[in-house]
Amino acid sequence: MIRTIPHLSNLWAIAYVLLISIDVAWADVYEMKDGGQVAGNLIDRGKDGEYVVETTEGAVVTLTRKQVRRVVSQDAKYLEYVKLSRSLPDTADAHRMIIDWCKESKLNKLTDHHRRRLLELDPSDEQARASLGFQQHQGRWLTQEEIMAQRGFVRYDGAYRTVQDIALRENEKRRKTEEVDWQRKIRLWRNWLDDRRSAEAVQLISEINDPYAAPALVKFLEKERNLQVRDLLLETLAELKHPQAATTLVNFSLNNPDREVRLQCLDYLIKYHQPISLRTYVKVLKHRDNVMVNRAAEALQEIGNPEALSPLIDSLITTHKYKNGDAPPGDITTSFSSDSGGGGGGGLSFGGAPKIRKIDQKNLDVRQALVELSGGQDFEYNRKAWRRWYINQQVREFVDARRDK
Amino acid sequence: MPKPTVAIIGASADREKFGNKSVRAHAAQGYDVYPINPKGGEIEGFTAYSSVSDVPVERLDRVSLYVPPAVGLSLIEEIAEKGCEELWLNPGSDSEELATKARELGLEPITACSIVDVGLSPNDLSNS
Which ipTM score applies to this complex? Predict the structure, then answer.
């Protein structure tokens, strides 16, 4: 008898597809608990629910409810196929015949099933090969998938991709999954901090050492109002080797209004995130807000990298704009201009645009950072003197380096 | 044996651009190259066609994209109508949406660099 598709579940799927596409006459398949099956039409039910079925071969059988695992409707075309396939031997010619029959009957998946079996029996059948998507490649029949695999491509997410690309995508998927998972866990533990499980939550949060937790910690940190919780999240985040951890610490070390928090963040950076990029701090040395300039200078002093010397010299005295009346007292040079952009110049005015006052401010924290990083030099706010000293240092280092050779 | 054919969509006369390097790479490896550029003209001595449907061959072995995914999406139906054995979505031209649409239209998208696939490196192709 010809070999039919071994897995019934496939058949039911095929039958379901066929329901949509062809005109069908209904029959049922009774799947038995012992693994067998009976195909036919229900003609009666017994008093205890037995199925009285007229089989496709014309026999009448009674199946108890206990014997039947489930009943599945099938279409007549498929039943015809079952009948035909069972009547034929498992030979290449018989499979060729049933392939033609399946093609005419539009049973495409069954056609391919028999093509595959045909190739097992007769690997040289070119028509079956071609129909199943095989191509001649360097003297061998290969599927497109196999040919692409030889070229280093694997089908993944709807396209052929390199193994390296797939590995990157897998990593990205894993990263996203784990980040979402951490989001869920930290939200839960954060809620526990407000109730009787707070000690457990503190323990769980402080034990986090997975870098994938960093984005979730940052998210909760940004909206945290409770200072103790904020410190816990910050401390946990600080130890994670993740770019977002370092970025957040830099951000807090400049922007947090609490100086203790800013210094704490710098300590974390120095302890866990060496080497520290100076780029953000150097950029803030040119901030329009003088307070920020001095915060950046203090941070650079804490970090202690002499590469900050030159930009610090440039920022010893910085010019800032203030609306009339907002300007800080003291300091050295002022000039006036009109905010509306017209004319400028000093003098009294009544009404119109507010006067903008430009003030050159001496930055104490910048000077202190310079003193610290220069090893005790102090040229006060004399930029030229600082610059001269700095250039001399560079020349000396250059000469020393040559001598080493 | 006929030479394999390739249409380079987003082909460029600028030798620094990948859309140009791909034309040179495929030509060097024995392909009949059909650069596609709305401006037409000539690229590396090959006639540039304003659309893939103007390419004077029945079916292409390969279509290689060097345009942003949004542009690729606007061209994909025309590419499918022309037909090709392989659709190469080079880095920067690929997107999930484009790959999905290509498959729906019966194309086989390959998300990788087609220059590397023909055995060359973009860095090996001079910029001048």
Answer: 0.76
